[in-house]
Amino acid sequence: TSLVAVLLAAFWAQVATAEEIRHGAIKLDSLTFDKAMALGSHISWLLRFADYYSLGRAETTWQEISGQAVLVKNFFLADLPCHPKSGASDEDDKNEAASPERVSNEEVDETIARGKDGVNLDIMERFNITFEDKMPVFVLINEANPRGLKFDNGLLEEDRMSGARAPELLKWLGENGVPIAPSGTLQEFNELVRQFHQEGFPSALIDKAKQLAEESYKDDRKAALYAHYMQKVQEKGEGWAMKEVVRQYKVLTSPSTSQAKTAELFVKTNILQVFAKKGNT
């Protein structure tokens, strides 16, 4: 573990500057990508490929996920900005790359592939990404998917222009081995909610949630809400959570709701949505 920490520290010192780390993401390129991937198969990466025109798309999603990613051990976000080749022909590229000294065709091809006339084109090619794709493109690399798994948010073509939505991407990460919680929720309790629904709302899991909140999360007010909502679901049925989400949303969007109340309701609604989704699966 200490060796990995040393390697990580050395790696970040080489590739990370204040300008290159944005919203908790590391900026990688053709020269540093393989170094990052060589840090170990136990490390998971979420890569974002974005061209100049798509940098603003899904930025809120990226920020939200980065806020959650810092809480997940051995999970990192990486930005890979992509730009196409210039208008110069391949023959001109090779002639320029070969000057002033003579080199082999293989070396010339490698120089071009390494991004001389484009940025991160070689990495795009590894994952079968082209500029015809709707960017940004998200790729997960972990032990289960060493060659990379592309995210497909399943939205209609016209909707995809606005980028992926955080809940969909977070759910996809969870389904593929990254234990990341939706914003404003607690993953350990989210797992209890999943088990609670699967086992038919047993009282033993409500007691377990209460004990966990008191012993391990006594300073986190969100923890106590889980046991409270579990009791409500047990009493009123699994449809209660969705009805409560709708009710609280109406209060949230009311002009008369104070800023303090809005912040409180956001926390409650995020947790209620965990219950509502489990009840609809």
Automatic annotation (TrEMBL):
Top-level taxonomic group: Eukaryota
Region of interest (Disordered), residue spans: 86-108
Alphabetical list of InterPro entries matching this protein: ERp29, ERp29_C, ERp29_C_sf
Endoplasmic reticulum resident protein 29 C-terminal domain residues: 184-275
Entry keyword set: Signal
Leader peptide range in chain numbering: 1-18
GO cellular component: endoplasmic reticulum
Protein name per Swiss-Prot or TrEMBL: Endoplasmic reticulum resident protein 29 C-terminal domain-containing protein
Source organism: Alexandrium andersonii
